[in-house]
Design goal:
Layout: E1 16-20, E2 23-26, E3 31-34, H1 37-40, H2 49-59, H3 72-83, E4 89-93, H4 96-113, E5 121-125, H5 134-140, H6 143-146, E6 156-159, H7 164-170, E7 175-180, E8 183-184, E9 190-191, H8 194-207, E10 210-214, E11 238-241, E12 252-256, H9 277-290, H10 295-316, E13 321-327, E14 330-335, H11 339-348, E15 351-352, E16 354-356, E17 360-363, H12 371-391
Parallel strand pairs: 3-15, 5-6, 5-7, 7-10, 10-11
Antiparallel strand pairs: 1-2, 2-3, 4-12, 8-9, 11-12, 13-14, 14-17, 16-17
Amino acid sequence: MTSSILPTYNRTPLSFVKGEGAWLVEADGRRFLDMTAGIAVNALGHAHPKLVQALSDQAHKLWHVSNLYTIPEQERLGDLLTEHTFADRVFFTNSGTESAELAIKMARKYHAEKGAAHRVEIVAFEGAFHGRSTGAIAAAGSEKMVKGFGPLMPNFTHLKWGDHAALEAAITDQTCAVIIEPIQGEGGIRPVPEQCLKGLRDLCDKTGTLLIFDEVQCGMGRTGRLFAHEWAGVTPDIMMVAKGIGGGFPLGAVLATEDAGSGMVAGSHGSTYGGNPLACAVGTAVMEAMLEDGFFDHVSRVSGVLRQGLEGLIAQFPNHLEEVRGKGLMLGLKCKISNLDLVRAAQTQLMLSVPAADNVVRLLPPLTLTENEAQEAVSRLSHALETLDAGA
């Protein structure tokens, strides 16, 4: 039977009906170890009791009132985010794509309000992914993202990964912002070296250019700190957040300094659903869980176990695997074989992973993954590689 759903996804023929922690139950009863977490979304795993309670409690009180009114749940979550980050201001969205749109608007409006309306160009990087709206795909610029969707939003410059000389030359008196993921996710789990983030911050300061970090995938505790840029000791002017912030409930945000957000005044942007009571109640529960003593220590400890196991697989299967990339529980296996073959082989071992560019398999498990589950993931990957080896 033909599905009524628009066929924009190459779906795997699996239907999950229940989840608990790092495990998903398929309709036929099989239990899968979930090393994707909905592509870095289910940060606290499936059916986390604190999130279930927060959603249930709020659902019995109030779902939606619109941003015509003050929303106490939104204020609480905004206060938590500004208290624990560089930001002074927060705007809540429903997704990473919406966050990208606002980040672009905010950067251009900032310069316009400062009397430099000619500063509209945004520097972005090859391999980036910022969402699927017309503005976000223009920022990414890859052919597979933009082909057939023109004309695109203009004034984006795309640089090769790691080309420092090109970066310095690209920033002119027309540039309003640089947008970058501290760790590329879709691009193949490619971390920006800490010294490069520091140099980029210095360059933006020198030229009066705003620095936008896209932490939609690498943020919210995934690297062992609340946000990935914290490892480099630098801060952005504007930051895009989504995925893990809602723990599975649709929620995103744009965080900004007071100065960077100064152009966004009443009427300059809006959202019907963004920051509604349900979303923000769950987001607050996520933040509170991550801020508990020992949470990030747990992420670092488990990620160490997982990474050590993956390094062992590199040594065990040198003809199949090349390197381990990433930080914390945002890890990638660079493959010599087809990454899609490994993803499919892992599914036969009842483990879920997700492909990325540059022939990489991503492992983005819940941050609540246990050490035993990390070891189990390595074991299942080993069996998957053995099946591929036997079939070679």
